[in-house]
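Attaching the record inline, Q. Sequence:
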Amino acid sequence: MINIGISIGGDCSINLKNFSDENDISFWIGVDHGYDHLVKNNITPSLLVGDFDSIQSTYEKKSIDKIIQYNEKKSQTDFELTLEYINEHYDNTHLYVVGVLSEERIEHFYANLRLLKNNMTFYTDKSKIFILNKGTYKFTSSKYKFFSCFASKESTIISINNAKYCVTNMLLEYNNINTISNEFLTNKEL
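Structure, as predicted:
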């Protein structure tokens, strides 16, 4: 499994050096303004992708293995083009994506959520978002105090034990949001 870090242009206050070590990141990809987050953390990406309309840091072509620059007039986002590149060039990956949420461009966050796949996890300093396939899962409390569960496309049956709000065999449908903002109980397996 190749663990790829992707820094995109939203807000990012994560210490990316520590994040790289904790998640065994093989290499980083800077996506347009996401490159600036990497620079602030003294990380040189292996790949720089985008139309570079929002990148603020200067970059040296010789220090980056590959640079892919797109025209500003395009029908896909820089992140979407990055995902296509990864799918064409790498197998068996897990993508650790930071900079997903932006206070200024909330529509980009919505678009990013629509691109979320099973091999990705989106991170902020206070939360992470990922998809689970059908099955039984156990979680223990970690640095995140809250958790939420949503049906991504199809309805599903969900049971939650050892949490502040427990449910048993509840039908969770796409438009149902009453499983938001649940809490881990200290030292309990969920």
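The mean pLDDT is 90. DSSP finds four helices and eleven strands in the chain.

More tomorrow.
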